[in-house]
């Protein structure tokens, strides 16, 4: 709901890369190199990544300034091979000073990309394990224990939406009036409950169809889960509040 959002005028740089038309990787690197640096004084940088191929990869670059989160860039990679995507993510990471907070969708065909970024010798020097939170939306998370010592589990997808909605409603995220395309995508997100009572989210098309693109919404959700895990939850407890556990394959 746009009425709950805090929207201010500031630039957001939007880059779209077609991996078929830009078969030469140097052209892609040039496009990314032309994204201006973050000029506003800030405390740290945040990235959110939703991996895809035919369904595009969405990479969001945000920053935290005095407790408020602002957008800087939204990058969309369409049909870019996964091996090159790893290199591009590493490049963006370096360009913005190795962001302290990175959330990345670890489900589906992009899972090997996440594993390589975290484990492969090529990237081990970047310490992604200290900065990157893999998010599996089909998993459950453990919030703690009840009075009997049983684990309290909730599904990742609704939890990520709840956390993000909290940030939006409290105006911790400041959206840009120069990026109503993204605001519109967020507004088209709806949910229903299936026969088992589980919440199912979907993003409508601009004309109300049932199969709208949600890649940028998902990138924001991963960024906010990482923000919560690496920054906010640690501020509240001496250890992370929750742990990701892959329990279900679908949400």
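-> sequence recovered:
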């Amino acid at each position: 709901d746009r009425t709950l959002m805090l929207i201010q005028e500031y630039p957001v740089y939007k880059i779209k890369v077609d991996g078929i038309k830009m078969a030469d990787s140097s052209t892609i690197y040039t496009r990314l190199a032309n994204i201006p640096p973050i000029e506003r004084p800030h405390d740290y940088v945040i990235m959110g990544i939703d991996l895809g191929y035919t369904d595009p990869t969405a990479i969001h670059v945000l920053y935290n300034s005095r407790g408020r989160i602002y957008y800087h860039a939204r990058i969309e990679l369409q049909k870019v091979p996964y091996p090159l995507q790893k290199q591009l993510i590493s490049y963006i990471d370096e360009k913005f000073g190795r962001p302290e907070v990175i959330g990345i969708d670890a489900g589906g065909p992009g899972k090997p990309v996440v594993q390589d970024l975290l484990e492969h010798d090529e990237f081990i020097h970047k310490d992604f394990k200290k900065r990157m939170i893999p998010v599996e939306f089909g998993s459950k998370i453990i919030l703690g224990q009840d009075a009997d010592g049983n684990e309290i589990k909730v599904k990742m997808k609704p939890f990520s939406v709840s956390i993000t909605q909290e940030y939006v409603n409290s105006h911790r995220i400041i959206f840009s009036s120069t990026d109503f395309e993204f605001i519109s995508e967020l507004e088209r997100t709806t949910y229903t409950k299936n026969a088992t009572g589980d919440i199912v989210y979907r993003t409508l098309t601009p004309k109300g169809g049932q199969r709208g693109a949600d890649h940028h919404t998902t990138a924001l959700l991963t960024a906010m889960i990482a923000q919560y895990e690496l920054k906010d939850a640690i501020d509240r407890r001496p250890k992370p509040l929750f742990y990701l556990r892959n329990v279900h394959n679908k949400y």
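The chain has one domain: 2-245.
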